[in-house]
Amino acid sequence: MHTPSYTIPTRPCPTSCPFCESQDCAVCNESEQFVRHFMHGPVVKPMSKEEREWCIEEADRAGEGSYPREETEHLNDKDLAWATYRAWCEYVRSNCL
């Protein structure tokens, strides 16, 4: 599944992102921009069913069992975005990337 096609109404990283050198987040890819937007807001519309499904699957995949669907499908959008982000971080740590 590809990154959701959510149009972010504000700059991609609404809070200070340690990897961004400018407001257009040259380092963060589209997936990370999407997740960070829901982590830090402001959010003007909730995730669609397809966007939530993408986050649930991404958290499950990257979390390697730490974020199973049963635990993430009931989260609100912000908490689901955080779970996806944490799954990515844990994946990087566990694979020494």
The average pLDDT score comes to 79
Query: Which percent band covers the strand fraction?
Result: under 5%
Which radius of gyration do the C-alpha atoms yield? 13 Å
Number of helices: 4
Order of secondary-structure elements = HHHH
The share of residues in helices is 40-55%
The residue ranges in which pLDDT falls below 50 over 5 or more consecutive positions are: 7-12
Give the number of DSSP strands: 0
Give the overall form: globular
* Intertermini distance: 23 Å
The major β-sheet equals: none
Outline the structure in words.
This protein is mostly helical and 97 residues long. The chain has a domain at 46-94. The chain contains four helices and no strands. Helix 1 (30-40) crosses helix 4 and helix 2 (49-63) packs parallel to helix 4 (77-94). The relative contact order is 0.16.
Main traits of this protein?
single chain; 97 residues; 4 helices; 0% strand; globular
